[in-house]
């Protein structure tokens, strides 16, 4: 019982800092100095445990978002209106799968295995972006996901190319280039429907914009004053720009793009504020956001079930790959 007084390591939720050895303090000072100098941190470098955990949390959530994010659009591959649109959509959905794989690899360099991360996803312990729990009801949803969802993703992810953790930053450079193509193809698909389509197609686009606008601006996460991870992540250079600032930049950019497209954004309070040099916007329904993040959005159960099913269906591939690797071992040893 008395040994409890010796528990100096600081438990979860305990604000006390764990006691550190002189060696650790020197390591931590060196680490902070490298962050301050803008150097990259690499997998074998010493890093504080909390920095490692924060990165695994964010990168694995990001990876899960990419692979769950394949589902809403994947739903339309067999129903794409032309061969050209089908080829574009196939490539886009495959790209999202590739992003998930780069990101799982980046997280693995921090000492967490892909199996551990996937287990957390499949058992509902891990988060993934709220946006992918909404349904894709019409073909216009596919264009709107490209325009708004990929657009929001780029706005959030370009600053991560300067993240202090090298493997994450490098993965983000390629991801952002591909996301940029995704955003353009979505916008171009909507522009075609708006300029050359029928009245029914134009109202289909407007309906999709009405349904995706608010969830898209929620993607940036809770307001800064309710974002428990932001302050430390910004100090460590994991996040470079705050949730609210990115949201504002995205709204300002989208207003102009909506005008060119000829659609209305579904927010009567959206207007230019000359003093702030930004657009003011209406109240975001944070209750809806937390409901979706908490597992009770329109498609949460369906999305998770689809990922679990894919994992189970792939069991034979994993078994075959392992059996093949075992068969190669004697050859490798002999060589
Ligand atoms: N959904 O303290 P903060 C894409 C959670 S990829 C669900 O502000 P943080 C590509 C947050 O995790 C889209 N949960 O957290 C694509 C935290 O919970 P925790 C994904 C959310 O980490 C396009 C809690 O709320 N992008 O779209 C969300 O500092 C089209 C408190 O929040 C990334 O992951 C949310 N929207 O900031 C694919 C980018 N927001 O972990 C297919 C990298 C917040 O403490 C088709 N991630 N939460 O239990 C980030 O930049 C950050 O992690 C944020 C959140 C900004 C998402």
UniProtKB/TrEMBL annotation:
One of its GO terms (molecular function) is phenylacetyl-CoA 1,2-epoxidase activity. Residues 9-20 have a biased composition (Basic and acidic residues). Keywords: Oxidoreductase. Its EC number is 1.14.13.149. It is an enzyme of class 1 (oxidoreductase). It comes from the Bacteria. SUPFAM superfamilies: Ferritin-like. InterPro entries: Aromatic_CoA_ox/epox, Ferritin-like, Ferritin-like_SF, PaaA, PaaA_PaaC. Residues 1-20 are annotated as: Disordered. Signal peptide: none annotated. This is 1,2-phenylacetyl-CoA epoxidase subunit A. It comes from Ramlibacter pallidus.
């Amino acid at each position: 019982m008395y040994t409890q007084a010796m528990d100096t390591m600081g438990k979860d939720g305990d604000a006390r800092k764990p006691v550190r050895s002189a060696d650790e303090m020197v390591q931590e000072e060196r680490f902070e100095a490298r962050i301050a100098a803008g150097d990259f941190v690499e997998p074998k470098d010493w890093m504080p445990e909390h920095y490692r955990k924060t990165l695994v949390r964010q990168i694995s959530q990001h990876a899960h978002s990419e692979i769950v994010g394949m589902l809403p659009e994947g739903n339309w591959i067999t129903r794409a209106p032309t061969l050209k649109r089908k080829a574009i959509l196939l490539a886009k959905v495959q790209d999202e799968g590739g992003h998930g794989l780069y990101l799982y690899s980046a997280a693995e360099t921090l000492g967490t295995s892909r199996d551990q991360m996937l287990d957390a996803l499949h058992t509902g312990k891990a988060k993934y972006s709220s946006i992918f729990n909404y349904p894709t009801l019409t073909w216009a949803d596919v264009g709107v996901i490209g325009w708004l969802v990929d657009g929001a993703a780029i706005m959030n992810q370009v600053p991560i190319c300067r993240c202090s953790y090298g493997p994450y930053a490098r993965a983000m450079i390629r991801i952002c280039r591909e996301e940029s193509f995704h955003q353009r193809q979505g916008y171009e698909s909507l522009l075609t429907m708006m300029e050359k389509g029928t009245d029914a197609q134009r109202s289909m686009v407007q309906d999709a914009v009405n349904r995706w606008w608010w969830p898209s601006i929620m993607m940036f996460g809770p307001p800064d004053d309710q974002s428990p991870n932001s302050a430390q992540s910004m100090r460590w250079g994991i996040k470079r720009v705050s949730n609210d600032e990115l949201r504002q930049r995205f709204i300002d950019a989208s207003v102009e793009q909506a005008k060119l497209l000829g659609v209305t954004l579904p927010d009567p309070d959206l207007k230019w504020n000359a003093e702030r040099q930004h657009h003011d916007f209406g109240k975001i329904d944070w209750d809806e956001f937390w409901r979706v993040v908490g597992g009770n959005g329109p498609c949460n159960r369906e999305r998770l079930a689809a990922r679990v099913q894919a994992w189970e269906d792939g069991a034979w591939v994993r078994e075959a790959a392992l059996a093949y690797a075992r068969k190669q071992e004697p050859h490798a040893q002999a060589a």
